[in-house]
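Before relying on records like the one below, remember that each one covers exactly one chain. Contacts with other chains, cofactors or solvent are not represented anywhere in the record.
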Amino acid sequence: MTPEHRMTGQDILPESAQIAERLLEIQEAVNAGSRLHEAALLRQLCSDLKLETGYTNNPGLVDTRIAQKIAVVTPRAVAAVLPVSPESEQTTVMSRERVQAGIAGQSDRLTVVAGPCSIHDPAAALEYASGLSELRSKYNADLEVVMRAYTEKPRTELGWKGFTYDPYLDNSNKLSVGLIAIRMLMGRITHLGLPVATEPLNALTPQYLNGLVTYSGIGARNVTDQTSRERASGFSTVVGFKNSPEGSIQAAVDAVVAARAPHDFLGVSETGMTMQVSTKGNLTSHVILRGAQNGPNYSAAHVSEAKQLLAKRGLPSALVIDASHGNSQKDHKRQIEVVADISMQIASGEAAIRGVMIESFLVEGRQNHDVHNPGELKYGQSITDACVDLETTAGMLDMLARAVQDRRRKAER
């Protein structure tokens, strides 16, 4: 691939496919040898302990609804061929420290997570990252801008599950290609000096992005899932929990309590081995107000209610507000008025608001995609939730930066 292709991201899927093919060949060779060695050891164990041997996979008892099992590249193998660059490492370390300080109230810098509802095109994502990186530099004194780089899409029922699972957008579901591609993409974004945020839905996918993610947002559909809460307790990232779809802030508060505590649970290692995982607890965990089906929850009254719920559990008053989703009532243009209201609260001295989320992409709005003709999509426009464009995003960042400056002046008086 030419340097131009690498800069635009046009090489990411072709190169990911090549890497996936070679890694799976290596993995199969390793697995074959491992299976033979394990079988010999198990036979010896059964003989030593006088146990019955000859495990059989009765097709009438197991996997009765499984159509196919396909080997997937391991996190360790992907990291071996795509290591975190020194530049990406510096980006992640610095941004985690800044976001954590902001959430903890040790810094007055406001975290802003901005980006597309979900990434579907690496080239467009990198172009957007370039533009957002410039805005990050411009507002660096007041805002910690992090790119929303979500590659897993939660579904209420059915639909495209995200770039990780179906990177070609055609229901081919080349999962190994997707897992490699997202690491390559996140590596290039962070190499620019722009930190990233993700929404981890699967228990295993975060391991493929180790060292590259600053912020993890646990979505409204997963906030009540205890396994998600336990996994978050061990994340190296800063973690936010959204209120539930019906608007329960208490559900998010409960999740924060759970994630801040240590846990033991069943997990999988970087090599795919089942393990018992013991966590220390994640004290960066906080609540995200994202609105509900019946209305928004970003107002001063809602912020006050959330602070009271947190105080009852002995938790710090740390809130991030999502300007989209229920708070915009699915109208991407209303994010502007949401951010304007949030800015007024911040400017008036509200210290509990530590972050804001914005759905933003190159082209405003959204489009449907046809799995039979994925190449006909409009470049730079979301195929999931509608977004505002970069120019509008810049205006909102300016509002928020000015609000932070006002809040800082009030605190200094």
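The first strand starts at residue 110 and ends at 115.
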